[in-house]
Write a structure and sequence with these properties.
about 190 residues, alpha+beta, six-stranded antiparallel beta sheet, 5 helices, about 15% strand, globular
Length: about 190
C-alpha cells in the first residue's frame, strides 16, 4: 500500500474510533442504566419476538394490573440490557414497555427459564446483585426495584422518581407491576 493510500484508510479508521467512543446510539445515561463494564463489547440480548405460553400468562397478569391505571404493556423487539448479573446475560427474555416517555420509566423484562427452580435460583442471584455495591452503582441512588418470580419466569422493572419524566404515572406503573408474582426482596 502506498503512503497516499494509507492516509484515507487512517482517516476512516480515526472517524470510526471517534464515533464509536461517542457511542450510545443517542440514548442518554438518564434513559437507561449504565452498562455493566464487564459486558463491554458483547452484543445485547434481543427481546424474543414470539411469546411462549408461559410468558403470555405473565403478560396477561401484568396487563390486568396496568389496565385500570390506563397503562399498557407493549412488546419491544429492540435490545435492552438492564444492569444484571453475568448469569442472566444470555437468558431468554422478552421486553415490554408501559408506554411512558422515558425507557427507565417503564421497561419490564421477563426472563424465561425451563423450570421454576432455575428461575428461583436466578432470582436470588439477581436480588443479591442489585443489593451489592456494584449493582447499586449502575442505577440512580433513589432506584426502586421490583423482582418477582412467576413459575419459570422472573419479572423485573425499576424506576427512579428523580429521573422520571412523569413520576406519578411511573410510580403507578411500578406499583402495578410489583403486584404480579412472588416477590423477591432486594436489600439495598
Amino acid at each position: 500500500m502506498t503512503s497516499g493510500a494509507v492516509r484515507p484508510v487512517l482517516v476512516v479508521l480515526l472517524g470510526a474510533a471517534v464515533s464509536s467512543s461517542c457511542g450510545g446510539g443517542g440514548r442518554s445515561a438518564q434513559s437507561r442504566p449504565r452498562e455493566d463494564p464487564g459486558n463491554a463489547g458483547s452484543p445485547l440480548p434481543t427481546s424474543q419476538s414470539s411469546i411462549s405460553p408461559q410468558v403470555a400468562n405473565v403478560v396477561a397478569a401484568l396487563r390486568e394490573q396496568l389496565h385500570p391505571a390506563g397503562l399498557r404493556l407493549d412488546l419491544l423487539t429492540q435490545p435492552y440490557h438492564p444492569s444484571e448479573p453475568a448469569a442472566l446475560r444470555n437468558a431468554r427474555r422478552t421486553i415490554f414497555s408501559t408506554g411512558l416517555p422515558q425507557p427507565a420509566d417503564g421497561y419490564v423484562v421477563i426472563y424465561e427459564f425451563a423450570e421454576a427452580a432455575t428461575a428461583a435460583s436466578m432470582g436470588r442471584q439477581f436480588a443479591e446483585y442489585l443489593g451489592s455495591g456494584f449493582g447499586q452503582t449502575n442505577y440512580p441512588l433513589d432506584a426502586q426495584f421490583s423482582l418477582a418470580q412467576v413459575g419459570g419466569t422472573l419479572v423485573f422493572t425499576w424506576w427512579s422518581r428523580e429521573r422520571s419524566s412523569d413520576p406519578e404515572r411511573a410510580g403507578t406503573a411500578f406499583r402495578a407491576i410489583s403486584q404480579v408474582g412472588q416477590r423477591i426482596e432486594v436489600r439495598k
